[in-house]
Write a structure and sequence with these properties.
Layout (H helix, E strand, L loop, with lengths): L19 E5 L2 H4 L12 H6 L17 H15 L3 E5 L2 H4 L9 H16 L3 E7 L5 H5 L6 H18 L5 E6 L1 H11 L9 H25 L5 E6 L4 E3 L4 H24 L4 H6 L13 H5 L5 E5 L4 E5 L25 E4 L14 H14 L5 E6 L16 H19 L4 E7 L18 E4 L4 E4 L1 H12 L7
Parallel strand pairs: 1-2, 1-11, 2-3, 3-4, 4-5, 5-7, 6-8, 7-10, 10-11
Antiparallel strand pairs: 8-9, 12-13
Helix pairs in contact: 3-5, 7-9, 8-9, 9-10, 13-14
The chain binds 5-hydroxymethyl-3,4-dihydroxypiperidine.
The site of 5-hydroxymethyl-3,4-dihydroxypiperidine (IFM) has 8 residues, from loops.
Length: about 475
């Protein structure tokens, strides 16, 4: 068996002494309180209120009511024994029109949250953008417009001014691939637009916004601040070793990964990506000097991983919606019409995503080789299952424990092989609003009864608490 995925190594696996154990959430998925204290709509409010967009017509209006229940949620984190909590700031809560002055009430919410975390010995880790663009900015053109990148840097500066004395670790964007390609390409995410050229423009302006925001943060934050970006790097495998399948994998790797890592970490867009998408756009939206603005030194790269991607060359008409990112008649992969997506064999989660920790191991080794010297954090990893409370009130999720055990074994093996992984954030603290799937998918290690908002730590939470307390991977059962 592949040592990366061996479920029961003979000796218990011990993580490095300062390894950071955390858990993660995002504002729109948990906060609710969408019209309180001056918050304005984000693109996700508009999208979720548009009939037919989100399963069951679910919205984030109430979500898990974290805006009011955050003290209880911090207690839950204490119970998990985590040393860090990764949350995102809601842009329309702290800068309601997406430009101009900040909302003091909005910032106060995050100040109180950060203070209460610090008082419990939990490090606040802030993500500035987890997909909730103020609707005002979408009305002005959204991410395909260059000005949105400038607005993002301004917003980053406001948050840094407010939280810079409390927060040490900052992330500009979460998974810009989803914002650009699901938001403006396939339309299965807000704002639901479907133009492949706009998707590529959005990707560039997200990159530019990242670079400008890093510069704004550096200007304001103390020297010891750690600045990062979180990418959902796809581990892309060709179905066969044929030249055509390998070329399909290269093409998807370009659009999923290198269109971001190229400029952010290397200072240039990959030539093959520009060539592959030439029929879609001439890339004239990239101005002279942009790649240099995007290429800012980073202290950490955040990696989100759930499942690998398996592709082959395909000669027939374009196949869309079979890549695990939601059904649509429009592709999130501009210029890749001749790529087919396949299910990797094996067990799957409730999302239909194959459980394959070897993908995480291989991905981490690739990042180790491609970007030597860059410390890594697993900023998201986890799984959805159809959890429910039993007659005794307990929620048992052995499948999630097995998933986490397998992936953490892979992380440990990658560290032993020289990947500089500094921490791991379990996605997610709570069951929450899973975007286009609404509340139908439960990713939490804490169960939420949405009718009462009662929280129940699942058995995986008890298992994770054992791990965070002594840094040794507990057995699966
Ligand atoms: O819930 C999402 C999260 O917001 C971003 N990364 C993937 C998770 C699971 O789909």
């Amino acid at each position: 068996m592949d040592p990366a995925v061996s479920p029961d190594a003979a000796a218990p696996l011990r993580f490095p002494p300062h390894f950071l154990w955390g858990t993660a959430t995002a504002a729109y998925q948990i906060e609710g309180a969408v019209d309180e204290d001056g918050r304005t709509p984000s693109i996700w409010d508009t999208y979720s209120h548009t009939p037919g967009r989100v399963r069951n017509g679910d919205t984030g209006d109430i979500a898990t009511d974290h805006y009011h229940r955050w003290p209880e949620d911090i207690e839950l984190m204490s119970g998990l024994g985590v040393g860090a909590y990764r949350f995102s700031v809601s842009w329309p809560r702290v800068q309601p029109t997406g430009r101009g002055p900040a909302s003091a009430k909005g910032l106060d919410f995050y100040r109180r949250l950060a203070d209460a975390l610090l008082a419990k010995g939990i490090e606040p880790v802030v993500t500035l953008y987890h997909w909730d663009l103020p609707q005002h900015l979408e009305d002005a053109g959204g991410w395909p417009e260059r000005d949105t990148a400038l607005r993002f840097a301004e917003y980053a500066g406001l948050v840094a001014d407010a939280l810079g004395d409390r927060v040490k670790t900052w992330t500009t964007l979460n998974e810009p691939w989803c914002s650009a390609f699901l938001g403006y390409g396939s339309g299965v995410h807000a704002p639901g637009r479907t133009d492949p050229a706009d998707a590529l423009r959005a990707a560039h302006h997200l990159n530019l916004g990242h670079g400008l925001a890093v510069a704004a943060l550096r200007e304001r934050l103390p020297e010891d601040a750690r600045i990062s970006v979180t990418l959902n790097l796809h581990h892309v495998r060709p179905l066969t070793d044929s030249a055509a399948d390998r070329d399909a994998a290269r093409r998807i790797d370009g659009l999923a990964n290198r269109v971001f890592t190229g400029p952010m970490l290397g200072g240039a867009y990959p030539a093959d990506v520009i060539e592959d998408t030439a029929s879609v756009t001439d890339w004239s939206f990239v101005h002279d000097g942009d790649p240099a603005l995007i290429h800012q030194p980073l202290d950490i790269l955040g990696v989100n991983y759930y499942s690998p991607t398996l592709v082959s060359h395909h000669d027939g008409p374009p196949l869309h919606g079979a890549d695990g990112h939601g059904a649509s008649d429009h592709t999130p992969w501009p210029g890749a019409d001749h790529v087919a997506f396949h299910q990797t064999p094996g067990e799957r989660t409730a999302m239909g995503w194959t459980i394959d920790p070897s993908g995480l191991y291989e991905l981490l080794l690739r990042v180790r080789d491609d970007h030597p010297g860059l410390p890594l954090m697993i900023t998201e990893n986890g799984s959805a299952f159809d959890d429910y409370a039993g007659p005794d009130g307990a929620v048992r999720d052995p499948e999630r424990v097995a998933y986490l055990h397998g992936h953490l074994t892979a992380v440990h093996r990658a560290i032993e092989a020289g990947a500089d992984v500094r921490g791991y954030f379990l996605w997610s603290l709570l069951d929450n609003f899973e975007w286009g799937y609404g509340y139908s998918k439960r990713f939490g290690t804490v169960y939420v009864d949405y009718a009462t908002q009662r929280r129940i730590p699942k058995s995986s939470a008890h298992w994770y608490a054992k791990l965070t307390r002594n840094g040794t991977l507990p057995p699966r059962d």
